[in-house]
């Protein structure tokens, strides 16, 4: 495998090097680099001058951004830079990610490789990409060679990651005390004796009386590191330009014992491209990228176990120094053990926990995840001016291939439980119980093999021409499609469409654009798989009108509006038997029942019924995104202030459901399970909001300052819902589509009299100290019919702020993001403690008869606590927060320092990420339960040019 790896790396490097040498032998200019060198922005299948953008489009210049804000993820902190973005575009859902026009993962292209990122938010901006782009497109364009001659840039970084917080769980003595209390609350006898609790509390012998803290410095480092380096090579001449980026990084791990000490992630990538000019009318390009990714991890599931394994359950290590000298059977076990740590410790375990994360960390082996990706695309531009002035043809073809698999060493291991006695005040081990056995074959197991292939093709005729210097005409006729084959999935993921774009502007003052796509989807029945998605956009540059032409305030002012109707199949899916199903939802489904009833034919042959599970619907069709947007672009006071704002209202119509409300009740039965209900386009949602991006540029003395403020305010409503509810307040129709539903709490039950005088609970028997709820319908019973809207999961208002100050050779950059108005439910295992769950510090504020007036947590219980632990405002919290996402200080050494040396430029920078969160629930939001903790990071970097 190492030889294959090396050959691929060397082959790829030689390919890019030879292309680079070929480029240097010539001299002058190229293709996609041509447009990028201008103030032009990549949009769907073309470039547009930034001042002429319409229809909800934002762009980030990653070259300039990375010079002052080094990051390791392509979309890091984008909320602080782009209005209407919070991980989604206009809260529509997951956007389509395109890298150089091909569907690819955003995490497989690093910021140092990127030229620009375009955020296509409006329906009119994404229509040409077809139905799978209906939730927005993030178009990532990688760097290209633009300048003559050879230019080399190198960058190195060292980062330290420091955990923000760990969960706070109770120690063994406190846990056992409170667990006994929980059993008493349930009318049960105590599990743990007073002597056991006392001896555990002293901490004199943690091997006999374990008190395990997963987050102790015995197991966890204070920080872990990441190191990365990259080098960029670019250059060219008249007939070719090239660009190559080679990068590598290594990331460590927090775990500090056993196999965890060797946990790490390595990544190496080589990205390159060549732009070619064969003659005045034929140009082309080739892009390629190879990524080698490996992760080594232990087999212990340490972080997930940290949220479940109680502190008194097992002693991780058994010291052999406590074993009696004359206990020959125990010494025989010790001498035959494969895992005697440091010659002093056996791996601990119990009959209930014969395997545990601590023993597994030392003895269970490790897993190595390996991923390889190769991406290739190429294209040709033909200038057809000789046939028709302004006419050109462009085609692109791409093939991406990714493979991944796991190789692992899986060992079996024995654990030991000590039987302790005390002789004259000294604890000794009188015998050992062994569970399992040691076996290490050394065999490397291969599993989890997966493959993914993407093939993309596009071809388009473009027409761009200006008549009489005032009439600017553009047109595009497009054929575009891609297909992804993913192992384990029967159906390929496909997108195919034709596109048409017609544009006209008069003196860059009056604009009109018509774009449409003819889409195709195999998710629908034959004869119903095609649809047309039209959009029309108009714009008016008021600043060119006579009444504003001489304005001392307004430099540029443009209004635009668009009306769109997209057909999409992204939401054509359903969950059936806990599986996500996207295809054949239009078809009839019959199954052999397997139910309790049937009949016997002659000769004793048993027959069963064929049951209908779903009726077919040949008319099942696309879900429609109907949208109206109004946009504003302004530049004021000679560029001092720039504003981009967009108002949007989007109606998503025809979401799938089985509309039981429009069919007779006998179309569906629950026993035996049978249904004649078809999937239909029925439910509708509406989203309304506006986004904005405000940038202030000002020089104060010797300091150049830029302040950017971005944000979005957003509301939503379910305008049509298939529902039949008994009470008006239970209707989802008219409520936010991200409504948070739950019960309204009314304190705790005080005593048995309070319980007797309150509505009965359908969630099991309640006792004093349980949560009491409001009976919304006054029917005397607390049940699901008493749920109301408590708030919204999504934040109505999101915002971001970025600030840059440049003084002499110093540059300061900061990014802030936040959201206001969202709600959440504290429903993880840390907050919902019942049964045999691990106890966190929140239970200290539990209800007891003595704390009835001050308690903030329900009574403890060893039962399921179904009444207490369900969605209600008792557990609701505000998700409003403000995050200081990034601060960086950069120093650029003066150019004259290097004179005519090899080094042409040098910069050093210091940065911090995720530095501060301001929120009422900061402690809860910064704490991960059952997974690797969130971290703050600090980075020292160096960049050089040659």
UniProtKB/TrEMBL annotation:
Leader peptide range in chain numbering: 1-23
Entries under Gene3D superfamilies matching the protein: TonB-dependent receptor, plug domain (2.170.130.10)
InterPro entries in UniProt: Plug_dom (IPR012910), Plug_dom_sf (IPR037066), TonB-dep_OMP_SusC/RagA (IPR023996)
Domain (TonB-dependent receptor plug): residue spans on this chain: 46-137
Keywords: Signal
Pfam families, alphabetized: Plug
The protein's name: TonB-linked outer membrane protein, SusC/RagA family
Species per Swiss-Prot/TrEMBL record: Bacteroides luti
């Amino acid at each position: 495998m190492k030889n294959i790896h090396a050959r691929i790396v060397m082959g790829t490097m030689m390919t890019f090097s030879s292309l680079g040498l070929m480029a240097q032998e010539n001299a002058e200019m190229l293709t996609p680099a041509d447009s990028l060198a201008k103030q032009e922005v990549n949009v769907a299948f073309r470039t547009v001058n930034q001042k002429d953008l319409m229809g909800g489009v934002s762009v980030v210049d990653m070259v300039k951004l990375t010079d002052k804000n080094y990051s390791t993820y392509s979309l890091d902190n984008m909320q602080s830079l782009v209005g209407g973005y919070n991980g989604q575009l206009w809260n529509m859902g997951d956007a389509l990610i395109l890298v150089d026009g091909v569907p690819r993962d955003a995490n497989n292209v690093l910021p140092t490789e990127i030229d620009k990122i375009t955020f296509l938010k409006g329906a009119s901006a994404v229509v040409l990409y077809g139905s799978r782009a209906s939730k927005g497109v993030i178009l990532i364009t990688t760097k290209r060679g633009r300048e003559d001659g050879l230019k080399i840039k190198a960058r190195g970084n060292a980062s330290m990651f420091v955990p923000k917080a760990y969960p706070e769980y109770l120690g063994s003595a406190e846990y056992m005390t409170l667990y006994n209390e929980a059993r008493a609350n349930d009318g049960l006898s105590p599990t743990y004796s007073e002597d056991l609790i006392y001896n555990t509390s002293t901490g004199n012998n943690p091997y006999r009386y374990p008190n395990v803290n997963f987050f102790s410095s015995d197991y966890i480092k204070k920080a872990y590191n990441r190191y990365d380096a990259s080098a960029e090579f670019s250059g060219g001449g008249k007939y070719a330009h090239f660009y190559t980026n080679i990068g590598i990084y290594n990331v460590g791990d927090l775990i500090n014992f056993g196999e965890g000490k060797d946990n790490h992630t390595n990544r190496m990538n080589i990205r390159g491209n060549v732009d070619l000019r064969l003659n005045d009318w034929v140009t082309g390009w080739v892009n390629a990228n190879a990524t080698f990714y490996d992760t080594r991890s232990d087999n212990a599931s340490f972080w997930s176990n940290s949220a479940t394994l109680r502190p008194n359950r097992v002693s991780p290590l058994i010291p052999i120094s406590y074993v009696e000298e004359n206990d020959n059977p125990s010494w025989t076990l010790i001498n035959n053990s494969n895992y005697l740590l440091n010659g002093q410790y056996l791996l601990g375990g119990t009959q209930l926990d014969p395997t545990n994360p601590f023993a597994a960390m030392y003895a269970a082996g490790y897993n190595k995840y390996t991923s390889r990706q190769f991406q290739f695309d190429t294209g040709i531009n033909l200038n057809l001016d000789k046939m028709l002035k302004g006419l050109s043809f462009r085609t692109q073809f791409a093939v991406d291939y990714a493979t991944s698999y796991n190789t692992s060493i899986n060992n079996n291991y024995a654990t030991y439980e000590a039987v302790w006695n005390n002789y004259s005040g000294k604890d000794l081990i009188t015998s050992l119980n062994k569970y399992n056995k040691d076996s290490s074959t050394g065999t490397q197991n291969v599993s989890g093999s997966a493959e993914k292939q993407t093939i993309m093709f596009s071809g388009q005729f473009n027409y761009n021409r200006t008549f009489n210097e005032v009439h600017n005409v553009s047109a595009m006729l497009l054929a575009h499609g891609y297909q992804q084959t993913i192992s384990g999935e029967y159906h390929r993921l496909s997108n195919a469409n034709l596109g048409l774009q017609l544009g006209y502007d008069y003196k860059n003052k009056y604009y009109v654009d018509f774009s449409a796509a003819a889409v195709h989807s195999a998710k629908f029945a034959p004869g119903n798989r095609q649809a047309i998605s039209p959009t029309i956009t108009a714009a008016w540059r008021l600043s060119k009108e006579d009444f504003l032409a001489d304005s001392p305030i307004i430099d540029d002012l443009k209004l635009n509006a668009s009306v769109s109707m997209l057909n999409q199949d992204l939401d054509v899916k359903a969950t059936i038997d806990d599986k996500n199903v996207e295809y054949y939802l239009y078809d009839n489904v019959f199954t052999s029942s397997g139910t309790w009833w049937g009949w016997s034919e002659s000769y004793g042959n048993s027959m069963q019924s064929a049951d209908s599970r779903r009726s077919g619907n040949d008319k099942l069709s696309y879900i429609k995104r109907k949208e109206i947007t109004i946009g504003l672009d302004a530049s004021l006071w000679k560029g001092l202030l720039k504003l981009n704002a967009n108002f949007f209202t989007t109606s998503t119509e025809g979401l799938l459901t089985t509309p039981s409300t429009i069919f007779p009740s006998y179309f569906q039965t629950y026993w035996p399970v049978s249904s004649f209900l078809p999937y239909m386009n029925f439910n509708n949602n509406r989203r309304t909001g506006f986004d904005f991006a405000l940038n202030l540029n000002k020089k104060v003395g010797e300091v150049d300052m830029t302040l950017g403020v971005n944000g979005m305010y957003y509301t939503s409503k379910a305008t049509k819902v298939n529902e039949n509810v008994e009470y008006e307040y239970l209707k989802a129709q008219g409520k936010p589509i991200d409504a948070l539903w739950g019960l309204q709490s009314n304190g705790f039950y005080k005593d048995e009299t309070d319980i007797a005088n309150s509505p009965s609970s359908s969630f099991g028997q309640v006792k004093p100290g349980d949560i009491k709820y409001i009976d919304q319908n006054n029917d005397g019973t607390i049940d699901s019919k008493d749920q109301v809207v408590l708030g919204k999961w999504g934040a109505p208002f999101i915002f971001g702020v970025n600030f840059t100050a440049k003084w002499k050779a110093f540059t300061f950059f900061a990014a802030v993001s936040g959201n206001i108005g969202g709600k959440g439910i504290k429903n993880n295992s840390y907050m919902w403690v019942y049964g045999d769950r691990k106890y966190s510090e929140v239970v200290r504020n539990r209800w007891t008869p003595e704390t009835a007036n001050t308690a903030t947590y329900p009574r403890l219980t060893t039962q399921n606590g179904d009444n207490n632990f369900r969605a209600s405002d008792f557990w609701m919290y505000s998700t409003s927060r403000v995050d200081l996402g990034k601060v960086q200080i950069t120093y650029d050494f003066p150019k004259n320092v290097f004179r005519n040396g090899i080094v042409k430029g040098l910069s050093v920078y210091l940065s911090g990420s995720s530095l501060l969160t301001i929120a009422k629930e900061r402690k809860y939001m910064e704490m991960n339960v059952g997974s690797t903790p969130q971290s703050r990071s600090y980075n020292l970097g160096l960049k050089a040019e040659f």
